[in-house]
TrEMBL record:
Pfam families: HhH-GPD. It comes from the Bacteria. One of its GO terms (biological process) is DNA alkylation repair. The keyword DNA repair applies. Keywords: DNA damage, DNA repair. Its EC number is 3.2.2.21. It catalyses: Hydrolysis of alkylated DNA, releasing 3-methyladenine, 3-methylguanine, 7-methylguanine and 7-methyladenine. This is DNA-3-methyladenine glycosylase II. It is an enzyme of class 3 (hydrolase). CDD domains: ENDO3c. It comes from Rhodopirellula maiorica SM1. GO terms for cellular component: cytoplasm; protein-DNA complex. One of its GO terms (molecular function) is DNA-7-methylguanine glycosylase activity.
């Protein structure tokens, strides 16, 4: 049976899809006018990228980058084999928490044991990739979505569990007061409203996420490590 080729994007089509979104959602046009187009954030479809995404779970980008840099310097390269043989005290010395050390080892075991074959993921549908990745302890839906977006360049992901993404969406669409001191977590009703709005951006929800991340980064003055 022939597989349908997954829908992806490049640095050239990224801008076109941004304009397509701006045509149906004026806020995206305002982001382009104010902040320009988002960069083509791109990572290799590799073990190292998945390990880095694990390190980025629930911490700032700067903190994750520091840990990632230390780990790379200590191990030489971040591979399933180097993680498998790294001592616990080495991982802790690089700033890897006990829980994330376990997640890295679970990922290494899955790749080494070929229960997760990374080379097969680019040919698989989004849902199949998500199912394969989330079968590994420590990789949830947010991590799977980020891998699909950054490493496989799939066009239609929007991780609503991403705090920066939600905050940017609330700000850009004026869904909460603009004063940061008055901002509160979204209510279930607001989350439902966000989900309904995001659904309208299919099949370019990844590009919408890129634009909202870009707007958030520009507004906050955050350094981004691709």
């Amino acid at each position: 049976m022939n597989r349908t080729k997954p829908r992806t994007f490049t640095s050239r089509t990224l801008k076109r899809y941004c304009r397509d979104l701006a045509a149906i959602e004026p806020v995206f046009g305002q982001i382009i006018d104010r902040d320009g187009y988002p960069p083509m954030w791109r990572r290799d479809p590799s073990f190292e990228t998945l390990a880095r995404i694990i390190l980025e779970q629930q911490v700032s980008l700067a903190s994750a980058q520091t840990t990632f840099t230390r780990l790379t310097q200590q191990l030489g390269s971040i591979t399933a084999k180097s993680i498998q043989f790294a001592r616990d005290e080495v991982l802790r010395g690089c700033g890897v928490s006990r829980q994330k050390a376990r997640y890295l080892r679970e990922l290494a075991a899955a790749v080494q044991g070929k229960t997760l074959v990374l080379e097969e993921l680019p040919r698989m549908a989004d849902d199949e990739v998500r199912e394969s990745l989330t079968a590994v302890i420590g990789i949830g839906h947010w991590s799977a979505s980020v891998y699909l977006m950054l490493a496989l360049n799939r066009t239609d992901l929007f991780p609503l569990g991403d705090v920066a993404l939600i905050n940017s969406m609330l700000h850009e669409f004026a869904l909460q007061p603009t004063s940061e001191t008055k901002r509160t977590p979204p209510t279930p009703l607001e989350v439902a409203e966000l989900e309904a709005r995001v659904q309208r951006w299919s099949p370019n929800r990844t590009i919408a996420a890129y634009m909202l991340w870009h707007a958030y980064i520009q507004r906050k003055g955050i350094a981004v490590f691709a």
